[in-house]
C-alpha cells in the first residue's frame, strides 16, 4: 500500500512537470515546429488538468514540501498562461461583436449554417433535416466530394443561388444562398486543391457585403497539400490582405483548422479589422464531435464592425467530427 502511494505520488509529480512544460512551450505557438504549434490547441484541457493536479498534489502525502510548493507554483503559472488566452472566450470580458437589440423588420438580417461534413461521413439526411429545421439563408459546407454534392443537390429547391468547387481531396466546398450572389470567385490561395470562395451578397434593398469562405489545411505539412509548409498561415495571411483593402462589410467563415484564441490579428495579418463572434460569449467548441475530452473551436465566423450578432449556436451532431455552427447576423445601417 505504501509502495502504491509512492508510485502514484511520482506519477502526479511527473504529470505536473509535463503540464508545466507544455504550458510554457505553448507560448511559442507561432513557430515552424508542428509539435509546438499543436500545443496551442488543448488549452482548455491543459487548464482543467492543471487544476486537478494541484488538488491531487495538495492531497498527496510527501516529505518534500518544497517540491510540492514548487510544482504547485509551476502549475499556477501554467494556469495563468492558459487563462491569458482563454479568458477572451468567457463572459468575463466584453463582446467584440455587439449583440443586436431592438431588431426591426426592415433591418438586413440573415443567417448562416456552417458545416464541415467530413468527406467519409455518409449521414447526409441528418444534415439536410437540420438545414430544413433552421432554414438558414446561407449554407456553407466543406469536405464535399461528388457523393456529398449529389446528396446536397436537393437544396437547390430552396436555394436559387449556389456555387460549387468539388474535389476528392477533403477540401471540396459548396455555398447555397437564398440571397443574390452578385459576384463569386473561387480562389486557390496557396494550393490548387484547396479552394476558397469570395462572393458579394446582395440584399433586396441593394446593400452588399463580401463573404469569404475558407478552409485552409491544418498547421502541419502534407506532401499532397503543402498549404502550411513551414507552419505559416499563408492562406489566412492572403485573406487578410483582401480584408485590409475592402470595399464592403466583410464576413469570413470556415473551418480554419486552427484555434484563434484571440489571435485574429496575427492569424490574418489584419489589425482591428476582423472580430470574433465568440469573444465574450463562450468557446462553442466545434471539434471533435466524437471525442468529448478533446474539443476545441475550429470553425469560425469573423466579421467587420458593420455587423451585430443576433444568435450564435453550436448545433447537434450530423455524423461528422465537426458540429455545425449557426449564426444570425444583422448588417447595421
From TrEMBL:
InterPro entries: Endo/exonu/phosph_ase_sf, Endo/exonuclease/phosphatase. Residues 116-322 form the Endonuclease/exonuclease/phosphatase domain. Keywords: Endonuclease, Exonuclease, Hydrolase, Membrane, Nuclease, Transmembrane, Transmembrane helix. SUPFAM superfamilies: DNase I-like. The chain crosses the membrane at residues 7-29, 41-58, 70-87. Gene3D superfamilies: Endonuclease/exonuclease/phosphatase. One of its GO terms (molecular function) is exonuclease activity. This is Endonuclease/exonuclease/phosphatase family protein.
Amino acid at each position: 500500500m505504501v509502495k502504491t502511494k509512492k508510485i502514484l505520488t511520482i506519477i502526479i509529480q511527473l504529470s505536473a512537470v509535463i503540464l508545466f512544460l507544455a504550458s510554457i512551450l505553448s507560448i511559442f505557438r507561432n513557430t515552424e515546429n508542428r509539435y509546438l504549434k499543436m500545443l496551442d490547441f488543448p488549452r482548455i484541457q491543459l487548464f482543467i488538468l492543471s487544476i486537478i493536479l494541484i488538488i491531487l498534489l495538495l492531497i498527496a502525502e510527501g516529505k518534500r514540501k518544497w517540491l510540492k510548493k514548487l510544482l504547485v507554483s509551476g502549475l499556477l503559472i501554467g494556469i495563468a498562461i492558459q487563462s491569458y488566452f482563454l479568458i477572451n472566450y468567457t463572459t468575463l470580458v466584453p463582446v467584440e461583436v455587439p449583440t443586436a437589440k431592438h431588431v426591426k423588420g426592415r433591418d438586413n438580417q440573415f443567417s448562416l449554417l456552417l458545416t464541415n461534413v467530413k468527406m467519409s461521413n455518409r449521414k447526409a439526411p441528418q444534415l439536410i433535416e437540420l438545414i430544413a429545421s433552421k432554414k438558414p439563408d446561407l449554407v456553407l459546407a466543406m469536405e464535399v466530394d461528388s457523393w456529398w454534392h449529389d446528396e446536397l443537390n436537393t437544396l437547390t429547391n430552396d436555394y436559387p443561388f449556389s456555387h460549387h468547387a468539388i474535389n476528392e481531396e477533403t477540401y471540396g466546398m459548396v455555398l447555397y444562398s437564398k440571397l443574390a450572389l452578385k459576384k463569386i470567385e473561387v480562389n486557390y490561395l496557396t494550393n490548387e486543391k484547396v479552394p476558397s470562395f469570395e462572393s458579394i451578397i446582395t440584399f433586396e434593398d441593394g446593400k452588399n457585403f463580401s463573404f469569404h469562405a475558407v478552409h485552409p489545411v491544418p498547421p502541419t505539412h502534407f506532401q499532397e497539400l503543402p498549404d502550411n509548409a513551414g507552419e505559416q498561415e499563408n492562406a489566412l495571411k492572403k485573406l487578410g490582405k483582401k480584408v485590409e483593402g475592402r470595399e464592403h462589410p466583410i464576413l469570413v467563415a470556415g473551418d480554419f483548422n486552427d484555434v484563434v484564441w484571440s489571435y485574429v490579428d496575427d492569424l490574418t495579418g489584419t489589425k482591428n479589422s476582423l472580430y470574433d463572434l465568440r469573444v465574450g460569449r463562450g468557446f462553442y467548441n466545434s471539434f471533435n464531435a466524437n471525442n468529448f475530452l478533446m474539443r476545441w473551436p475550429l470553425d469560425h465566423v469573423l466579421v467587420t464592425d458593420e455587423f451585430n450578432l443576433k444568435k450564435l449556436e453550436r448545433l447537434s451532431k450530423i455524423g461528422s467530427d465537426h458540429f455545425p455552427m449557426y449564426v444570425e447576423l444583422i448588417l447595421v445601417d
